[in-house]
Task: inverse folding
């Protein structure tokens, strides 16, 4: 009984933290939220928040029901040759959308995020902080932040066209066709000449 | 009095056609709808639908509150040198989003269209039929439809990143910076070598 009670207590506490986090992200935006503030509002020890979630990025991923926490996944993708980074990013990104396990959650999360101005901006802050900054830090060219967001624009455009709006033949093209057609675009944004 | 009555009658008839069209687009999808069927359901003469709207594309644009009917605007953009088409498309597209008059309507229309699976598919059918087919017909390379949708993916990705999610520095970049950075991508998709 004690074990069951403790287990249920943990589930409730975790859910309570997620609920508080959801409200705070909505009210304060991604950048305005701190794990300490969430712990205070939830009436729990900050160490407990850290125990359940791998930092703010992981907590946001949980709130948004994202299938991956970019703070954990991105370093693995960024590791490796810089002149193949475009293709690695593309294959990882497309993989998230193609997989029967993560694809439906990616579609639902993007739809939800884009449905209102407020949630779009929240997603934007998260993407800037947790994805674009990491990607830019991996580059050693001029204007790394602009390069990162241009890369993001082609990736998100593929997602919207192929998985949300579903325009043929973009939807019917094979993953290999997509990679061959768009990896050079990403690689040029990341490491190619960028007009000043 | 008679004039006022007739004028109001026209406004009511036009609104009635739009209401019927909205319902039919939702029920049957873009491709499943005909102007004749809409006229029948609205209890008006088909000639009246043609009188108020420039074809199905214009009626859909009205229902979606799009600021432009691509069937009218696109031929103007497509006209001209093929090796500058990427930049022309880009400048026209960005112009729609940047303008204080059309920008807010573009944002609202895209948000609404992406908010549900059904409305996304409807937008997809419309884009395929009224935009991609016209763009592909202008190209004289292999796989024109795939080229058109790849072009569309970069355009819509710019719109989502810069105007909906608003990730800096994509949002703060000048139009000229965007054009110099992404026009080569569009031009490669349109007329460049495409891996088979």
Result:
């Amino acid at each position: 009984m004690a074990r069951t009670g403790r287990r249920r207590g943990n589930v409730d506490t975790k859910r309570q933290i997620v609920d508080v986090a959801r409200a705070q992200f909505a009210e304060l935006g991604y950048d305005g939220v701190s794990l300490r503030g969430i712990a205070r509002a939830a009436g729990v020890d900050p160490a407990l928040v850290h125990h359940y979630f791998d930092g703010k990025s992981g907590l946001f991923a949980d709130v948004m029901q994202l299938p991956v926490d970019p703070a954990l996944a991105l370093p693995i993708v960024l590791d490796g040759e810089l002149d193949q980074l475009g293709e690695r990013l593309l294959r990882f990104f497309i993989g998230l959308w193609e997989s029967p396990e993560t694809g439906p959650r990616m579609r639902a999360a993007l739809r939800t995020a884009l449905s209102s101005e407020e949630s779009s901006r929240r997603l934007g802050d998260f993407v800037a902080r947790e994805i674009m900054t990491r990607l830019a830090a991996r580059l050693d060219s001029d204007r790394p932040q602009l390069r990162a967001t241009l890369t993001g624009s082609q990736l998100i455009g593929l997602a919207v066209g192929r998985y949300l709006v579903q325009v043929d033949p973009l939807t019917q093209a094979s993953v290999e066709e997509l990679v061959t057609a768009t990896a050079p675009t990403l690689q040029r944004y990341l490491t190619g000449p960028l007009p000043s």
In short: The first helix of chain A runs from residue 2 to 32. Confidence is low (pLDDT under 50) at residues 1-7 of chain A.
